């Protein structure tokens, strides 16, 4: 305590001054920093800690029996099982189709609405509305639409195909072992294409009319105008859309759970595996699946954050 | 948002603090468990997933009896709705983990309790069986099934269901020239009739999502192996890789070929509804299905028939709901009062009349119950009792989940019979 008084006055004053400058903002930030620190990063740490133990039974979960540190054995075991590889393949299939679908549909709608047409507001709302429905609610409806019965007992989309005479399009939707998961990306595309459209539309509107006029004055064809003037300006929007849809897709759980069931092999994804492990009191494997998911999402998001950070510095 | 070097340092610092905090808290959760203010007894929180339909009616009736027997103890309803009990089980897992147990909770009797026992989360209630005089009130077979490996009993059953029942639509059968009252000696005889229906373009057998397929699988195993060898599957005395299991799985595969293609998207009420509506001829389901028929004014014997799965006549594939005494329950006296009511004759009669199941006690008067319940009560006292797999009586949750995964993989066509059998064998080893 007494040492404080011995500090040279000049140094003491500058310290006080910098504290006065940094103090209030730090105080303001402190609650959110602490909350995020504990409930996000702290829990990520706790999750990781669980995932490197052999905490596979209820007795270990409560600490009645010891759990040992096994390092990355859970990860290697998981990645080695055929079942988890099937989940990861499903996740990739689902994400690729979901991304491609929303980007294509979203861009096409935005492009069409960008032309001055009547009733733009109505169309915009129609396309955007599905996003307001929760995945669980739309999942229940899509479970009926994607009924896998064919022939006489058909219902849902298969029945529709029969009515319009496109019988050959009937299929068993999400009950196909290999590609079933793609059927579940149909409702996901239906729900989020409107959102991507809104993003692109904002992008289109953000491009000053003068640029288009200038390009046309210089004799650019419509295609060249898009290729060299509009697309480059839309690429940041496209990237944001990819990231937003991509991370939603990687975390897919609720839609799959409400269309299919957790035990159904054909629609397993890592998030569903995590749920099943947790309900079997296998906390270590559940945590390991969680960490793997986090790493996959981070692989998508971190490069994006770095890129944006660099751009802002420029 | 622009990140300066200082703020990123702060963020990193905060993250470290968070991790440190979490690490500290990791060690300290066992300190303040147990205890609780004993001698409270003023109330009892009863945790169930009986929140709707006949289950809620049953719970209400049971509470009525409880209020008569223990007027000074207040009943607090801790029912959690959703997901056929899965929402409740998730919440229960969290509460037990956080050392915040309810005073008593509902759980399937039998092996499903093993996880709670291993985790020391529920108490041995054997002495309550003596205190309430329950040991002789329940059939000896049931007592065997309830007693865990260490000789203790950890729950008191409130009701019994039977899982090996075939439900059939008489109209559909008669239209296709099949006698609804036919008695089948084994699965092969039954499958001959299923073939007839298949050829006639009717869905012979309706089934729903994975757990109902596991329910079907267990009845096939009982039919082909017999009750003793079936029970042996769960204590290791029957070899899962044996030829008998292979032929049972072949029968299961054949039976699945008679089923509806949209099965994985349905749950049991929809599959049973197919029989009620006449779009399918048969359905294998536990006897809670009788409520679905009765609600729609269908008469047993005229509109629908019910019989044990062919080959399982004389075997009662049981599952039971039961109540436990959690370690560290805040009101143990209230919980004991509740358990007394659950085990009592009045409580069991009132509850089961409303829920549609049958009492675990053998001294209930059959005349009080419906026609189907009377036949089930008769079988329960005379048949060999085996434990249901799909409903947690035969195997712990982890085993059941592994078997469900293997079954789903097999029935969607992702694995062949040999793979399926070896996966089942691995699953059963735990």
Task: Please explain how this structure is put together.
The complex is a heterodimer of chains A (314) and B (430). With 314 residues, chain A is mainly α. Chain A has two domains: 50 residues; 228 residues, Orthogonal Bundle (MetI-like fold), CATH 1.10.3720. Helix content of chain A is 74%, strand content 0%. Chain A is built from 14 helices and no strands. In chain A, helix 5 packs parallel to helix 9, helix 9 packs across helix 11 and helix 13 runs antiparallel to helix 14. The longest helix of chain A has 43 residues. Chain A is flat. Chain A starts with a helix and ends with a helix. The relative contact order of chain A is 0.12. With 430 residues, chain B is α/β, with parallel strands linked by helices. Chain B has two domains: 170 residues, D-Maltodextrin-Binding Protein, domain 2, CATH 3.40.190.10; 193 residues, 3-Layer(aba) Sandwich (D-Maltodextrin-Binding Protein, domain 2). Helices cover 49% and strands 13% of the residues of chain B. Chain B has 17 helices and ten strands. In chain B, strands 1, 2, 3, 4, 9 and 10 form a six-stranded mixed beta sheet that branches. Chain B has a four-stranded mixed beta sheet with strand order 6-7-5-8. In chain B, helix 2 crosses helix 13 and helix 9 packs across helix 16. The longest helix of chain B is centred in the middle third of the chain and has 26 residues. Chain B starts with a helix and ends with a helix. The N terminus of chain B is likely disordered. The interface between A and B is large, with 54 and 50 residues.
């Amino acid at each position: 305590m007494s040492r404080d008084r011995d500090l040279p006055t000049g140094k003491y004053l500058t310290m006080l001054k910098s504290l006065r400058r940094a103090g209030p903002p730090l105080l303001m930030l402190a609650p959110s920093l602490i909350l995020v620190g504990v409930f996000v990063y702290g829990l990520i740490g706790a999750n990781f800690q669980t995932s490197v133990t052999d905490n596979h039974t209820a007795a270990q979960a409560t600490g009645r029996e010891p759990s040992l540190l096994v390092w990355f054995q859970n990860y290697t075991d998981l990645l080695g099982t055929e079942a988890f590889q099937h989940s990861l393949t499903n996740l990739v299939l689902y994400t690729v189709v979901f991304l491609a679908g929303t980007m294509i549909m979203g861009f096409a709608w935005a492009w069409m609405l960008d032309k001055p047409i009547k009733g733009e507001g109505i169309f915009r709302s129609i396309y955007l509305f599905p996003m307001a429905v929760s995945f669980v609610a739309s999942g229940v409806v899509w479970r009926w639409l994607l009924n896998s019965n064919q022939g006489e007992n058909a219902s849902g989309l298969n029945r529709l195909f029969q009515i319009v005479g496109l019988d050959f399009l009937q299929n068993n939707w999400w009950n196909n072992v290999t590609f079933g998961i793609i059927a579940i990306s149909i409702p996901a595309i239906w729900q989020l294409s409107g959102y991507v459209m809104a993003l692109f539309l904002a992008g289109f509107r953000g491009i000053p009319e003068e640029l288009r006029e200038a390009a046309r004055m210089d004799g650019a064809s419509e295609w060249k105008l898009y290729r060299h003037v509009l697309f480059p300006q839309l690429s940041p929007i496209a990237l944001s859309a990819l990231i937003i849809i991509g991370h939603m897709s990687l975390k897919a759980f609720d839609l799959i759970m409400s269309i299919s069931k957790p035990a159904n092999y054909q629609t397993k994804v890592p998030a569903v595996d995590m749920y099943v492990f947790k309900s079997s009191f296998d906390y270590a494997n559940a945590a390991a699946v969680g960490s793997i998911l986090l790493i996959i999402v981070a692989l998508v998001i971190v490069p994006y954050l770095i890129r944006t950070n660099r751009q802002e510095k420029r | 948002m622009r990140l300066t070097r200082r703020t990123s340092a702060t963020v990193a610092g905060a993250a470290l603090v968070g991790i440190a905090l979490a690490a500290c808290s990791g060690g300290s959760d066992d300190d303040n468990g147990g205890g609780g203010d004993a001698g409270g007894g003023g109330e009892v929180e009863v945790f169930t997933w009986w929140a709707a339909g006949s289950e809620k009616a049953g719970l209400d009736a049971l509470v009525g009896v409880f209020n008569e027997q223990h007027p000074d103890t207040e009943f607090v309803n801790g029912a959690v709705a959703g997901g056929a009990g899965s929402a409740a089980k998730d919440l229960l897992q969290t509460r037990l983990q956080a050392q915040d147990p309810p005073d008593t909770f509902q759980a399937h009797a039998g092996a499903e309790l093993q996880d709670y026992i291993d985790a020391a989360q529920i108490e041995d209630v054997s002495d309550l069986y003596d205190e309430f005089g329950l040991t002789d009130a329940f059939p000896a077979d049931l007592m065997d099934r309830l007693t865990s490996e260490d000789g203790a009993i950890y729950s008191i059953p409130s009701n019994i269901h039977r899982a090996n029942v075939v439900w059939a639509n008489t109209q559909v059968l008669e239209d296709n020239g099949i006698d609804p009252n036919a008695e089948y000696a084994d699965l092969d005889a039954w499958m001959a009739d299923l073939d007839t229906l298949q050829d006639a373009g009717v869905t012979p057998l309706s089934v729903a999502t994975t757990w109902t397929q596991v329910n079907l699988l267990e009845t096939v195993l009982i039919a082909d192996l017999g009750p003793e060898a079936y029970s042996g599957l769960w204590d290791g005395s029957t070899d899962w890789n044996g030829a008998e299991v292979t032929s049972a799985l072949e029968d299961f595969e054949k039976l699945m070929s008679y089923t509806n293609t949209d099965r994985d998207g349905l749950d049991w009420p929809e599959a049973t509804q197919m029989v009620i509506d006449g779009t399918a001829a048969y359905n294998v389901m536990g006897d809670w299905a009788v409520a679905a028929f009765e609600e729609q004014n269908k008469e047993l014997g005229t509109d629908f028939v019910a019989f044990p799965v062919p080959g399982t006549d004389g075997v009662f594939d049981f599952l039971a709901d039961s109540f436990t005494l959690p370690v560290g329950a805040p009101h143990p006296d209230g919980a004991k009062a509740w358990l007394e009511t659950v085990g009592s004759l009045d409580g069991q009669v009132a509850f089961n009349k409303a829920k549609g199941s049958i009492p675990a006690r053998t001294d209930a008067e059959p005349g009080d119950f419906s026609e189907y319940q009377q036949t089930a009560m008769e079988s329960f006292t005379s048949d060999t009792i085996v434990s249901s797999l799909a409903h947690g009586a035969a195997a712990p949750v982890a085993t059941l989940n592994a078997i469900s995964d293997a079954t789903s993989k097999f029935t969607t066509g992702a694995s062949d019979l040999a793979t399926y059998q070896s996966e089942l064998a691995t699953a059963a080893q735990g």
